[in-house]
Please model this.
Amino acid sequence: MTEPQKPQRILSGMRPTGRLHLGHLKGVLQNWLALQEEHRCFFFAADWHALTTDYANPGIVQSTIWEMVIDWLAVGIDPDKSVLFIQSEVAAHAELHLLFSFITPLPWLERVPTYKDQIEQLREKELGTYGFLGYPLLQAADILIYRADAVPVGEDQVPHVELTREVARRFNHLYRKPEQPLFPEPAALLMPAAKMPGLDGRKMSKSYDNTIALDESWKATEKKVRAMKTDTQRKLRTDPGDPERCPVWEYHKIYSTEEERGEVCAGCTSAAIGCLDCKQILLRHLEAELVPIRQRRQEIAARPDDVKAIIRAGNARANIEAERTMEKVRRTLKMGYRV
Ligand code: TRP
Ligand code: SF4
Model:
């Protein structure tokens, strides 16, 4: 991710759909951490977005939100630096979404690549709904209501930011003088695709059951790492292995020092070290990263009222910002009745 130079307004959302894992930490949250040091960041739980696909199970969203926020805080997302809030607590997102729906041609939504893909992939969820088609437009409202300059997203979300730019342009063009646009066109800050492979070498994802969750115990993590598959051709301790065929090696690439990688490579290919020795090196690094996060997590989880207060303050701040934009929008659309 190349960061913008000057302090900017950054906005990003995460859907509360399940426990966060190492993939979220490496692929998303560490980017947020870097951004909050230099920029004005707004981070929110996209609960309405979760409902577009999980409308049949609203309970999941409710319970997951708090766990997700606790994870954010535990890894160091700092409410003194960033505004943390819940989407549905800022009802103006829905109002702006509605107003955008009037000016958005259907083909713009139908051609978003995630649309048809997801309907296919999640066939059992019946996503032929009005709301699911509008998913990226709701996202456009999320972004534009804060007049964000930049949006950190994964590759799959780039078309949504592009749509957001098109909607901003169309609104400005229809309703505003060229020299007075209301909405800036936000840039997508592409986050490098999840660097973190799952325990089996595929992408880390709860649907593959190959994750290391942020909230699991260190014992559970240790057990999973010890059970990780290694080079399948290294059947005996005395057989030499090839790190390139081994998912453990992918983790060493992320966590281990150059020196350690040298040792692992030499030890593996000559059968001088066993796979458990090799994993032990990795476990030391994982422990150093995860144990402090989990300790903070427990401390934070023990104070649910403080977590609620953080979100309450974030919601209030977000509402003020959103309302500022909406006043301009209503005035622009000749809807400031002031009765
Ligand atoms: N669609 C995003 C995702 O699935 C979540 C999201 C909703 C979002 N609104 C957003 C991300 C606004 C960035 C900005 O990951
Ligand atoms: Fe994989 Fe390490 Fe075993 Fe080699 S020694 S096969 S890199 S776990």
